[in-house]
Amino acid sequence: MGSSRSCLCYCFFLVDEDTVFGLMPTLYRKSGPSTLGIIGLLSCLALFALFAPPLTCQEQPKSSHDAARKLFESGKDSEAASAFRVLVADTEKQRLALSKRPPAERSGRDAELLDFYTKILASSHNFLGLIAARHEKFAEAAREFGKVRALQPGFPDADFNHGLALFGAQRFAEAVSPLERALSLAPASSRIKKYVGLTYAEIGRYEDAAKLLEEARPSQSDDPRVLLSLGKSLARLNRIEESRQVFEELLTSQSESAESHVMWGQIFAAQSQPREAETEFRRALELDPKAPSAHFFLGMLSLSTGHLDTAKEEFAAELASHPEDSRAKYHLAFAMLSLQEPKDAIPLLKQVVAEQPGYAPAHYSLGKILLQQGSILESIAHLETATRLDPSKAYSHYQLARAYQRAGRAADSEKEFKITHELERRQDSDPAHTREEMP
Fold this sequence. Notes:
Elements: H1 2-7, H2 23-31, H3 35-73, H4 77-99, H5 108-134, H6 138-151, H7 158-168, H8 172-185, H9 190-202, H10 206-220, H11 224-236, H12 240-253, H13 258-270, H14 274-287, H15 294-304, H16 308-321, H17 326-338, H18 342-355, H19 360-372, H20 376-389, H21 394-406, H22 410-424
Helix pairs in contact: 2-3, 3-4, 3-5, 4-5, 5-6, 6-7, 7-8, 8-9, 9-10, 9-11, 10-11, 11-12, 11-13, 13-14, 14-15, 15-16, 15-17, 16-17, 17-18, 18-19, 19-20, 19-21, 20-21, 21-22
């Protein structure tokens, strides 16, 4: 995910400083202790009383912000993160206290100060997001960038950074909206087109993906993901000859690297050539024992052939190198459930639904196993979420009907059974658990 990291943007702002604090001693020195000097001194004190509170309130956060920024720019991420967190906590307290003041008691300076606090908070959360992304903690980065946009929607690159972090966290469905907003603000940006196209390919919008990736291709073809996702999208659209040409270009343009072998492993797997795919993934791990996604795809190959113990080992190995990989967590839980190991699977599934709240299969799998263990109310919550997120799955409605039945909600249970029977006429139903790619 190095490319995701390098594209994140940052900015900071400077607050204008006043010189009020220098007036009083200068005036006093010039006037001496005369009546005129005393009058001037009192006038200056009144001026100080008028302006000093907001200036004092602004100067300290600004100074702290600048110091934390310098730590960030010098690569001292741990110290910078700690400094920004302290600044956020202190500024939130000041902002909350000011916002609680009755409107009748507020002045124009209060509005300016609230705006100042909001800018300090937005910038601080932005830096916290950048620090998290720099260390590939994309879920954390997404939370921070989400706060930036909530505080200050017009913050530079707020949507792009948020979308890119969600993309890095593999929350592709959630990444679409902020990336699309970013593209609407910069429609000529090939970099943004690339990430919107890559995201479309991940969620199955192959026509839209192919269009944007073709547009981004001339200036972004050094990123192998562009050609890989374009080739896959064209293949899904049955544009086979175009897809073949893209893959041939990819083959000739990429030197040997762990990433290129993972890429070719995916291509072979998509073409139902599991042996060739496994060879590529193994070669990637020889070059880089922590090659992203190599163990994950080996686990998927093992699942497809029913080798559950091997799949479990591969997904665990992926998590050992990349502990935030939600796909690996979900599929490790799937393998554990298939091996009748629910005790270890439940914590993983709870992590996945916390990290990927819009992922229906995780809610379904967690709801089903909780129902089996007798946690009826908790089970219902997850199964209701699963059916809301993806109402087309008969097996989700079936499990929800059973949960309602055990909770004594007869009318709701009957309704869900009817939906189940209707859907079953149109689709095959109920795999034990859903083994799917993350959205």
